[in-house]
Amino acid sequence: MSSQPATLCVRFSVISGVFAARKALSKLLDGLAPLNLASDDTDRIKMVLAEVLNNIVEHAYPNPQTPGPIGVQCTLVDNGLYIALTDTGLPMPNDEPPIGNAPKTDVQFVDLPEGGFGWFLIKMFAQDITYKRSGDINTLSFHLPIRLKISA
Description:
This protein is an alpha+beta fold. The chain has a single domain (about 10-145), classed as Histidine kinase-like ATPase, C-terminal domain (Heat Shock Protein 90), CATH 3.30.565. It has 3 helices and 5 strands; from the N terminus they run E-H-H-E-E-H-E-E. The chain has helices at about 20-30, 40-60, 120-125; strands spanning about 10-15, 70-75, 80-85, 125-135, 135-145. A 5-stranded antiparallel beta sheet has the order 1-2-3-5-4, covered by helices on one side. The termini are close together.
């Protein structure tokens, strides 16, 4: 018999801004606490969500004077977490997530990129990534595999 919750759904929203990603990550991890996740699973969740949330803050709501809501829904499924994020900011260019290729690192030290790893990291750890724009709402959803600890 499993000591894990049979169903778990964490749902909340934050307002975009400088601390939105930190606030959302804290709320999500608090909501996932009953799962007693392994640290490597928690680290993957933090990495992917921080990248996605920071992208929403920076690109969907580029003007800090006009913040907007970011909705987060995380549902426990058989083989991991299904996560959906919504916002009413600007749509993604070409109505699709970036390709997410790794930036070139085989360059001189002074020419190493400072950024550009976000979508590469997201696509490395997340599966089944989908994006859609419906009216003025962006929805990005994906699956993050996790290992649940089963105890008798």
